[in-house]
């Protein structure tokens, strides 16, 4: 599960609530965890992992750590990916599966590869409602967390008792999810979360009534939360790029939009005699013969660096930009000034021309 939301939306608190309920099963939430450390701490036991503040910060070490963690989450989420081979003391090979749930939070979710995307349910928290009595609500919250801690042992006992119906429950919910149009893995991810809910709330096999009640959260879980945002997300990323100011000659600053407009029109502007070759340095290439602007979003491109510190850092700009109408990602590399580059191609209309 991937919970995202603005600073102060209650992500850490919700994670803390889960930690209180899970008790020793999960242990404290992790901050800044390396996958090797986590593996060791878990001692390869199938226990849930809670990770707070999984933020991209633009540094390559963080992004490598996050990739390793996502790989661990993928392995833990089962399927053939969960098989881990190890040599044993008597030199016979043993293979075992490490399965378990992962719950991470961050302000923006990091870019997930398609094979990982369907393994996470992404939930977005809205801003907390304003309260006239912050002290009182703080106290209530403390009481709730204490209640959850007190409940933990009984909660786990109940789940354990109900666990024999886990497979059946998942299968039934998964079938519903697939009938709603989810693909198999997406259906499984959602079914695992809702089967957990059913096991937590009820005793005995799931019936039609309980399945019916799950339909609403199910359709939310299998609906792609990115889908609605995609168009605007791409537009936001483009607007961010176009409004960046870059220093040009004579101590002047020009926005990327001004530079691209001038480059397309073949004009010079104050401080920049040749906007086309000026933009080259940023990985922005105006291809007049194609009537396209190529955007080079590789990690080594200056364009990607323009996004550092934003929610589109670490190459997430590419994912966002390619959702835009008028932007395409050609299958093959494009020849740019004699060099092959994997770029996005945007038509002039993207820039208001
Ligand atoms: N459900 C809630 N009801 C009332 N106050 C909350 C709730 N969740 C969080 N808070 C309070 O809001 C503040 C921010 O919460 P926090 O979990 O740290 O947010 P985030 O991790 O998203 O930045 C904290 O003071 C926390 O006690
Ligand atoms: Mg937090």
CATH architecture label name of the largest domain: 3-Layer(aba) Sandwich
Question: Main sheet?
Answer: 5 strands, parallel
Q: What oligomeric arrangement do these chains adopt?
A: single chain
Rounded radius of gyration (Å): 25 Å
- Based on DSSP secondary structure assignment, what is the total number of beta strands? 15
Percent helix among the residues? 40-55%
Summarize the structure in short.
By secondary structure, the chain is an alpha/beta fold. It is about 45% helix and about 15% strand.
Describe the secondary-structure layout.
Blueprint: E1 2-5, H1 11-22, E2 30-31, H2 35-42, E3 49-52, H3 60-76, E4 83-87, E5 93-97, E6 102-106, H4 114-117, E7 122-125, H5 134-162, H6 166-179, H7 184-201, H8 208-222, H9 225-243, E8 245-247, E9 253-255, H10 256-265, H11 275-280, E10 284-287, E11 292-295, H12 302-306, H13 316-321, E12 327-328, E13 334-336, E14 339-341, E15 344-347
Parallel strand pairs: 1-6, 1-7, 2-3, 3-6
Antiparallel strand pairs: 4-5, 8-9, 10-11, 11-15, 12-15, 13-14
Helix pairs in contact: 1-5, 6-7, 6-8, 7-8
This protein binds adenosine-5'-diphosphate and magnesium ion (MG).
Magnesium ion binds at residues 11-12, 52-53.
């Amino acid at each position: 599960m991937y919970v995202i939301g603005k600073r102060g939306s209650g992500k850490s608190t919700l994670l803390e609530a889960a930690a209180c309920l899970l008790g020793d099963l999960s242990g404290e939430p992790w901050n800044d965890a390396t996958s090797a450390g986590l593996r060791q701490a878990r001692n390869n036991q199938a226990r849930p992992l809670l990770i707070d503040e999984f933020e991209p910060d633009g540094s390559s070490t963080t992004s490598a750590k996050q990739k390793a963690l996502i790989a661990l989450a993928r392995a833990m989420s089962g399927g053939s990916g969960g098989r881990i081979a190890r040599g044993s003391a008597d030199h016979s090979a043993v293979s075992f599966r490490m399965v378990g749930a992962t719950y991470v939070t961050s302000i923006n979710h990091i870019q997930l590869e398609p094979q990982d995307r369907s393994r996470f349910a992404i939930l977005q928290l809205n801003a907390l409602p304003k309260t006239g009595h912050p002290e009182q609500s703080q106290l209530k919250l403390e009481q709730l967390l204490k209640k959850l801690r007190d409940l933990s042992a009984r909660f786990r006992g109940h789940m354990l008792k109900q666990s024999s119906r886990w497979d059946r429950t998942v299968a039934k919910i998964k079938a519903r999810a697939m009938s709603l149009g989810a693909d198999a893995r997406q259906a499984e991810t959602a079914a695992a979360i809702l089967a957990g809910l059913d096991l937590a709330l009820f005793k005995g096999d799931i019936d039609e009534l309980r399945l019916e009640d799950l339909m609403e959260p199910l359709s939310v879980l299998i609906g792609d939360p990115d889908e609605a945002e995609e168009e605007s997300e791409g537009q936001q990323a483009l607007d961010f790029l176009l409004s960046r100011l870059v220093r040009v000659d004579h101590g002047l600053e020009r926005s990327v939009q001004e530079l691209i407009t001038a480059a397309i029109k073949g004009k010079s502007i104050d401080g920049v005699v040749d906007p086309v070759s000026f933009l080259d340095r940023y990985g922005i290439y105006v291809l007049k013969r194609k009537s396209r602007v190529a955007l080079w979003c590789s990690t080594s491109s200056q364009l990607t660096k323009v996004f550092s510190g934003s929610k589109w850092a670490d190459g997430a700009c590419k994912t966002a930009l390619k959702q835009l109408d008028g932007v395409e990602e050609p299958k093959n590399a494009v020849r740019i000034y004699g060099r092959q580059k994997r770029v996005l191609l945007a038509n002039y209309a993207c820039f208001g021309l």
